[in-house]
Amino acid sequence: MSISTALSNALTGLTASSRAAGVVSTNLANILTDGYAPRSIELTAQGDGRGGGVAVVGVTRNVDAGLLSERRLADSALGYNDAMAGFLTRFETEVGLPDEPSSLTARIAAFEASLASAASKPEEEARLTEVALRGAELAEKLNAISSRIEAERTAADTQINQAVDRVNTLLSQVQTLNAHIVNAKNFGHPSASFEDQRQQVIDELSDYVPVRSADRGNGGLALYTPGGTVLIDGRPAELSFSPSNVVAAHMTEANGLLSWLEINGVQITSSGANSPINGGRLAGLFEIRDRLAVAAQTQVDATARNLIERFQDAGLDTTRAPGDPGLFTDNGGSFAVADEIGVAGRIALNSAVDIRQGGAAWRLRDGLGATAPGAPGNASLLIDLSAAIGSTNAMASGDLGATARSFSGHATSFVSRVGQQAITVDQTLSFAASRRAGLKDIELQQGVDSDEQMQRLLLIEQAYSANARMIQTADDMIQTLLRI
């Protein structure tokens, strides 16, 4: 080997060592950067035609594509269940636990107790007033539950619109980064930084929509959902949605009063197991708006209907004119079966006995249609009212079962259903969170290892020193030759 060849080889070694040190430095500097994949330098021996030595082929970004794909699907499952668990937790809080004074079951118990107390001493005005107050509180509790459902559906509709806008933005960013990566690879420039950015964008996207990726060659990626919807393959898909300012109880996607999700102008099923986007936060929000909250509204409406109809029976209070409402009304009037949707939000204590609206509590004893107080010791109507709420019957609507129960029994069944749903989704959420955490932990283990990088740095230092020593030796030999 000639001196010039040895010098050339040593110079290529110094260049490679310098480049390798830069890669290690970058790895260590980004050890805590989310979405950063560790780099490694790729070297090859130069052929005889180039005088030998080593050449830098490039810098490789090390990613386990299979693990990354599974972790993203876990992100989607976590987002989906997190959205639903949040709704059910808030709804369960609104309904209340049995031991809470403001819960639905506690309000029913207080109303029943006040009726029994008033029936024992019908001449005491305070006890009649207590019945009126507790009845109004029961109606207001049902109003509050219905209002919570409508508020949650409205919030979900708003969040869907925000999510759709964000998904469109992220898909546009993926398209831009795809172009940067392809151009960089075509011109032999580094593309790892662009790939890191793209991974972060797709990671955020996977919270909204489950995604799988396919390599389209030279660095470009196509994204699609497990359900088969293409999100980007060259050009990004465009999601569209029209939000509603307020979502009322009667408004649904099925009757056309709420917007569907469209992808490239095609209407898709946006919730349920058959949805092509099923599994992400976006699908979870549709699940809340169109299924979970609608089912909850149906149940609370059936409960309110049962309460109204118990006291609307014509034979219960003969002082009422035909068609007049009973103790509980549908927005001041009688209940009609055709108007059941949203009745929980309209139920109210009859204004004839509601002391806050100028009513008279003595009508609870003497009849809603009475024009003057009757015998103060007559407890027959109060006893009948107490019997009406305690008698057993089957729900005329809803899906809480056909078993005949007292009103408190039906309410307990409703509360139990809410609690069971919350527990089930919470368990699913815990599993999804554990699975995601496990995959993320494995992913982090495959990330930048500071110990390994420091070991590499020591080897690079040794290689650098060896090549520098070779250059010094070649220089000494040349100087010796020049002195001869």
UniProtKB/TrEMBL annotation:
Q: Name one GO biological process term.
A: bacterial-type flagellum assembly
What's the superkingdom here? Bacteria
Q: Does the keyword Cell membrane apply?
A: no
Q: Where is the Flagellar basal-body/hook protein C-terminal domain?
A: 447-484
Among the entry's GO cellular component annotations, what is one?
bacterial-type flagellum hook
The GO molecular function terms of this record are:
structural molecule activity
Q: Which PANTHER family match?
A: FLAGELLAR HOOK-ASSOCIATED PROTEIN 1
Q: Which family does it belong to?
A: Belongs to the flagella basal body rod proteins family.
- Recorded protein name is Flagellar hook-associated protein 1
Lineage start: Bacteria, Pseudomonadati, Pseudomonadota, Alphaproteobacteria, Rhodobacterales
